[in-house]
Specification:
Length: about 270
């Protein structure tokens, strides 16, 4: 679920020179993550026909025992009963006794999200019906400081169950890959993403090798800053077609730009 932009009506899909598409998939250029490492990673799952069959559509991040952070473009319906958050997940095809399957009680999309990835605000919070409990396989993510920026070429890690190639191959095991930040002054130039790369976004990748892809949307950009792993971004968009295009890095919603909104929402929905 990661991409959109050229055809913003294509739900997360951007065509060649514009951002990616959003519906099913993985990290390109990555490898199997070690079990029980990225404990704040969430598999957001959707029941399209209200038949009790849920499938992975997006990633997410545990930000509180009752809240999951994801991308606004991952919200295909405002009916909470169609979603569940799976935490402690590793292999989507197996029950490993580490998972917690939790239904969603309320969906809160950023009020300035207009369905256009190029205008930003691609962030949403899901309030869970029951709290996540500490079973040794889950953890609440550390977040950045409000307004915190990452320096150019800083190495972070993208994680998710998104497509591993432009053919749509989708591994069952959580994938991880190092990905370097591209500062806004570069990412916003015409050779890169141009004016659709906003200061409220983080660009990372663009080397033509490693990128997020369909199915990674909503998942975390994990960066070790200030002595801890912190989630600095939410996967938002990338190029349509081949996700790992040179000069078209994966674009993330910059979490540090939305801290006040997040704390306000969580405080008001306890």
């Amino acid at each position: 679920m990661v991409w959109l932009l050229a055809l913003l009506s294509c739900f997360g899909l951007i065509c060649a020179e514009t951002p990616f598409n959003v519906l099913d998939d993985r990290v390109i250029g990555g490898s199997d993550a070690k079990p029980n490492t990225w404990k704040w990673q969430v598999s957001l799952q959707f029941d399209s026909y209200n038949e009790g069959y849920f499938s992975h559509i997006c990633g997410g991040t545990i930000v509180d025992s009752f809240f999951v952070m994801t991308a606004a473009h991952c919200i295909l319906s405002m009916d909470p009963s169609q979603y569940r958050a799976v935490v402690g997940e590793y292999n989507l095809s197996e029950i490993e006794d580490s998972e917690q399957f939790i239904f969603v009680e309320k969906i809160i999309v950023h009020p300035k999200w207009v369905g256009d990835l190029g205008k930003g605000n691609d962030i949403a919070l899901l309030k869970l019906a029951t709290p996540i409990y500490d079973n040794g396989f889950v953890e609440i993510a550390n977040l950045p400081y409000p307004g915190q920026m990452l320096p150019h070429d800083f190495t972070c890690y993208i994680t998710g169950w998104g497509s591993m190639d432009h053919y749509g191959s989708t591994p069952e095991i959580l994938q991880v890959a190092p990905i370097n930040v591209v500062e806004h002054a570069i990412c916003s130039t015409p050779e890169w993403w141009g004016s659709i790369a906003l200061e409220t976004m983080v660009c990372a990748g663009g080397d033509g090798v490693i990128s997020g892809c369909h199915g990674d949307s909503g998942g975390p950009l994990n960066c070790q800053t200030d002595g801890a792993w912190r989630v600095h971004g939410v996967v938002s968009y990338g190029p349509a077609g081949m996700c790992n295009q040179a000069y078209k890095p994966t674009v993330f919603t910059r979490v540090s730009s939305f801290m006040d909104w997040m704390y306000s929402v969580m405080g008001a929905n306890l």
